[in-house]
Specification:
By secondary structure, the chain is an alpha+beta fold. Helices cover 31% and strands 31% of the residues. Helix 1 packs antiparallel against helix 3.
């Protein structure tokens, strides 16, 4: 489906990681850097940000890292998922992650 050029909505792709016990700080840093490098490798990504949990509510359920990837449309996300750079990132992160949560949503139109 083609997106209407006047459609101001964006597709957000939220990824949360809970790392396995014993994952070294160096491995976590490599994963952070590799995820942050994806926008330079995948044109479909129009915005990217990430951070670590700083909530005082204690409800993170072991998730420590949140990555927010933004696409113009579903076609961008659909190109990102099988992209070789994304696949390589998956190979890097998979041995170190205990839990992953992925949640996609549309922003409201402006």
């Amino acid at each position: 489906m083609q997106r209407d050029p006047g459609d101001a909505r964006r597709l957000r792709h939220v990824v949360l990681f809970a790392f396995k016990p014993g994952t070294s700080p160096a491995d976590v840093a490599r994963i952070e850097q590799a995820f942050a490098a994806l926008p330079a490798q995948i044109d479909a990504i129009v915005d990217f940000e990430w951070g670590t949990d700083v909530s005082v509510e204690g409800k993170a359920q072991g998730f420590t890292h949140c990555f927010l990837v933004t696409f113009r449309d579903a076609a961008g996300r659909d190109a990102y998922l099988p992209h070789p750079a994304h696949a390589a990132f998956g190979q890097l992160v998979r041995p170190h992650v205990e839990k992953v949560l992925v949640f996609d949503y549309w922003t409201p139109a402006a």
